[in-house]
Amino acid sequence: MARKVAVVTGGNKGIGYAVVKELCQKFNGDVILAARDEARGKDAVEQLKALNLNPVYHQLDIDDTSSISQLKDFLHKEYGGLDILVNNAAIAYKMASTTPDAEQAENSINTNFFGTLNVCKALFPILRPHARVVNVSSSAGRLSNIPNKELQKKFLVSNLTEEELCGLMKEFVSDAKAGLKREKGWAHTNYMMSKIGVSALTFLQQREFDKDSREDLVVNAVHPGYVNTDMTSGKGVRTIEEGAEPIVYAALLPPNIKSPKGEYIWEDSKVVSWV
Ligand SMILES: NC(=O)c1ccc[n+]([C@@H]2O[C@H](COP(=O)([O-])OP(=O)(O)OC[C@H]3O[C@@H](n4cnc5c(N)ncnc54)[C@H](OP(=O)(O)O)[C@@H]3O)[C@@H](O)[C@H]2O)c1
Q1: Ligand 1 atom, smallest distance to 62 CA
Q2: Which of 141, 181, 186, 219 could form a disulfide with 133 if both were Cys (CB 3.0 to 4.6 A apart)?
Q3: Structural domain includes residue 106
Q4: Could you give the number of structural domains in the chain?
Q5: How far is the C-alpha of 250 from the C-alpha of 148, rounded, in Å?
Q6: What is the C-alpha to C-alpha distance for residues 225 and 244, in angstroms, rounded to an integer?
């Protein structure tokens, strides 16, 4: 039997680092600490080795399709598949950022939504039966953060396709560039829109998994809580280990579980309504 393997994107710090740490202790297989920067990634691996844990570093920039495809080739060659994928890597601009809003909108959607989607498109074909995928979303990724009810409905279409969802994300960026975000009633921040996209993506991915010939593929979106990391400038109230808890829970769901499956999971590991 091939050795099992888990991948955590953005594993070099914050919540991703804590997820790698926890999986190294609980998952019966190798854990790949994927990071875009080699020095930061290898440094994180060394920190975990000092705790007698043994993650494997691999480079991954989710903005770079060639980097994604190199990770896929590595997984395919070394493991012949993939058992757990935690899509954790993301960016969030600070309130004080002087980057023009249109640029922030484009970069936030490109990394958090399209980067995550590109990782999924590359790695889903090598998922093994019983694989678990966790898309790290946020409370910001709740549909109710979109004030315009007509826009909300577009995300709620029961058979929404990936193409249609990508179209909505592009429409948002285009409205941001035209200065029409408020007028059109999109969510108030670019980060919110990127995470609403990640949540909606999760639900349609599960519908595809349900039709897949491979048995028991499960994907969930998780809100880790307000966590003390660089992203929250140290203001979060939960530790990174607490933030990792619901993510690791979703990553290690037992075989043939009926629920949570294609759900939105809160920081206490309970399923909540996305709407
Ligand atoms: N902290 C919270 O309160 C909170 C709440 C809700 C949801 N979340 C979500 O939880 C996840 C982790 O957040 P965090 O708070 O741990 O943030 P963080 O400390 O800022 O860590 C983000 C990680 O993502 C990586 N990353 C960013 N862009 C990347 C790219 N293009 N390719 C590969 N890696 C990239 C970063 O790498 P570098 O070190 O190289 O920059 C870093 O490893 C994110 O999805 C975030 O949206 C966080």
Answers
A1: 32
A2: 219
A3: no
A4: 1
A5: 31
A6: 9
In a domain? residue 165:
no
Ligand 1 and 239: CB distance under 6 A: no
In a domain, 162, yes or no: no
What six digits make up the tokens of 269? 């590991």
Q: What is the pLDDT of residue 2?
A: 84
With the most atoms of ligand 1 within 8 angstroms of its CB, the residue from 7, 36, 123 to mutate is 36
User: Mean pLDDT for each 10-residue chunk of the chain (275 residues)?
Assistant: 94 99 98 98 98 98 98 98 99 97 98 99 98 98 98 97 98 98 97 98 98 98 98 97 99 98 98 97
The answer to whether residue 181 sits within a structural domain is: no
Whole-number Å distance, alpha carbon 48 to ligand 1 midpoint, is 18
Nearest Cα residue to atom 47 of ligand 1: 90
Residues acting as catalytic residues? 191
For residue 214, give its domain range.
5-101+112-143+193-272
Q: Which residues, in sequence order, are CB contacts of 168 under 8 Å at separation 6+? A: 154, 155, 197
In short, whether 227's Cβ falls inside 6 Å of ligand 1 is: yes
pLDDT of residue 179: 97
Residue 81 has a pLDDT of 98
Cβ of 16 below 6 Å from ligand 1: yes
CATH of the domain at 121: 3.40.50.720
Cα(229) to ligand 1 centroid in Å equals: 9
pLDDT at 121: 98
Q: How far apart are CA 39 and CA 36, in angstroms?
A: 9
Dist CA 191 CA 123 (whole Å): 24
